[in-house]
Design brief:
With 328 residues, the chain is an alpha/beta fold. It is built from 13 helices and nine strands. It has helices spanning 2-23, 31-40, 50-59, 68-78, 80-87, 101-110, 175-190, 206-210, 227-233, 245-257, 268-281, 302-314, 317-324, and strands at 124-132, 144-152, 159-167, 194-197, 219-221, 241-243, 261-263, 284-286, 294-296. The strands form three sheets. The chain has a five-stranded mixed β-sheet with strand order 4-1-2-3-7. A hairpin with a 6-residue loop joins strand 2 (144-152) and strand 3. Helix 6 (101-110) runs antiparallel to helix 11. The chain is globular and about 55 Å long. Mean pLDDT is 81; it is low at 1-5, 89-93 and 317-328.
Length: 328
């Protein structure tokens, strides 16, 4: 209950703050930077958006220690992880996590000098974008996530990783158009060598997504029931990889332990995305009664699934050689 309450509170809080900044024409979009801006402009009066401010005040009534500005200033001072643990009770027990938190934190430390990548540059050897789609517009629906992973000449034998986008379908009236616009935007900005969607999640998009003429290389998760894959996807996408999801999650854990994956952490935008990824990755753990089964607790790992797919794609000899060359 505490975990769910913290997640819901924090998500709604960030959404309202983003709306408030937009109506006041303050061009800052990531929450960490918004908090830091408020810390540096403590006397600023938000002229527009009184209704939004009233909602923020009401939302914080049960959190008697701070008003909404106090929350943001505290976040800027202590950082996301300490903030969520101490003030939002968003505590996830991760002692049994398949991907150990200590390796996730090490991955961030390794990426401390790497800023969020805004466009493709000369340092990049190869680059992929990975998508996990969601279409339900219910309040509790999963998010759609896009993660980017690349090999960089400056960091031999490492896979650099950043969260590009994560959103819920309910927040957009034209959800399919929003997805396609984002896919084309990121394709144009970064020129990926491959775009890797989860095959299971694009069944509704097969014909439409092909019309975008993107370098699509879907991966099907679930090695047993491949009926839909064979019927719908194989005729559209040749040589599609099929993976066992549980085994792939374990292999991703090994990649973190071997320090192969680096989460970029060099600026506020990079930190915000990598903290989101890290919180999701620790949600996978073994079932206490049957350690051959993997279950989720806490935040659903939308971007985490993207890392699973990306890790598998980069280590698949067929797809890697055919599409982007050897990564590791």
């Amino acid at each position: 209950i505490f975990i769910a309450a913290g997640v819901i509170f924090f998500g709604l809080f960030k959404s309202l703050i983003n709306d408030l900044f937009q109506v006041n024409k303050i061009q800052i979009t990531d929450f960490s930077s918004q908090c830091q801006w408020l810390m540096n402009n403590q006397n600023y009066e938000f002229i527009e958006g009184k209704e939004i401010q009233d909602k923020l005040t009401e939302l914080c009534l049960s959190k008697t220690r701070f008003n909404w500005k106090g929350y943001m200033k505290t976040y800027a001072e202590v950082g996301k992880r300490a903030f969520t643990r101490e003030f939002l009770m968003d505590i996830i027990e991760n002692a049994n996590s398949i991907i150990g938190n200590e390796f996730i934190e090490l991955s961030k430390r390794n990426g401390a000098g790497i800023s969020f990548l805004e466009s493709r540059n000369d340092f990049i050897i190869s680059l992929i974008q990975i998508w996990d789609f969601s279409f339900s517009k219910s309040e509790s629906a999963d998010k759609t996530a896009c993660v980017m992973m690349w090999k960089d000449k400056r960091f031999p034998n490492k896979i650099l990783t950043q969260l590009l986008w994560e959103a819920q379908p309910k927040d957009y009236s034209l959800w399919k158009k929003t997805i396609f616009d984002k896919m084309q935007e990121f394709n144009g900005r970064y020129s990926p060598d491959a775009i890797v969607p989860e095959g299971n999640s694009i069944l509704q998009l097969t014909d439409d997504i092909k019309s975008l003429n993107l370098p699509l290389k879907p991966i099907w998760t679930g090695a047993t029931d491949t009926t839909l894959k064979n019927k719908i996807l194989n005729k559209n996408f040749n040589n599609m990889i099929t993976i066992d999801k549980n085994a792939a999650i374990e292999r991703l854990g090994t990649s973190f332990e071997n320090e192969e994956i680096v989460l970029v952490y060099g600026d506020n935008k990079a930190k915000e995305g990598s903290d989101t990824i890290g919180e999701q990755l620790i949600s996978w753990s073994y079932n206490t009664e049957d350690n051959s089964k993997i279950e989720e607790s806490g935040i659903h790992p939308d971007s985490g699934i993207c890392l699973v797919l990306g890790n598998e794609f980069l280590k698949s000899k067929t797809s890697v050689k055919k599409t982007i060359g050897t990564f590791l």
